[in-house]
TrEMBL record:
This is Rieske domain-containing protein. It comes from the Bacteria. Gene3D superfamilies: Rieske [2Fe-2S] iron-sulphur domain. GO terms for molecular function: 2 iron, 2 sulfur cluster binding; metal ion binding; monooxygenase activity; oxidoreductase activity, acting on paired donors, with incorporation or reduction of molecular oxygen. It comes from Marinococcus halophilus. InterPro entries: Rieske_2Fe-2S (IPR017941), Rieske_2Fe-2S_sf (IPR036922). Residues 3-115 form the Rieske domain. PANTHER family: 3-PHENYLPROPIONATE_CINNAMIC ACID DIOXYGENASE FERREDOXIN SUBUNIT (PTHR21496:SF23), FERREDOXIN-RELATED (PTHR21496). Keywords: 2Fe-2S, Iron, Iron-sulfur, Metal-binding.
Amino acid sequence: MAAVICREEELEKQEMIPGSVDNIPVFVCRTSEGEIRAFIDRCPHQGACMSKGKIDGAPMSTAPGEYSFEHEGDIVRCPWHGREYNLRESGKPLAPVKGKLKEFSAYVKDSYVYVELKRGS
């Protein structure tokens, strides 16, 4: 099953647009490279609405006391507890925690962004 979530031109980088497919809450977003991605709109930690969070980057450390800000526009942060997930790596968490954001198929057809649930989703 697939559903229209928004028009393609409505979806800016670092922005999330929520919707639903077959009563499953989803959000669509654009990565820093402009790719359109779709994920479940619930944090695997405690069920927060991820589309109310923020897409940004994340501080990374290569050595003690050395930090850099990386992955700008590719990290979604949970609004409740700040858990971070990489949008370009299929919703993989940045911290070593259990669970990632479930990703769905997103595509553009006739200027609309669709999200499709696969069988067994």
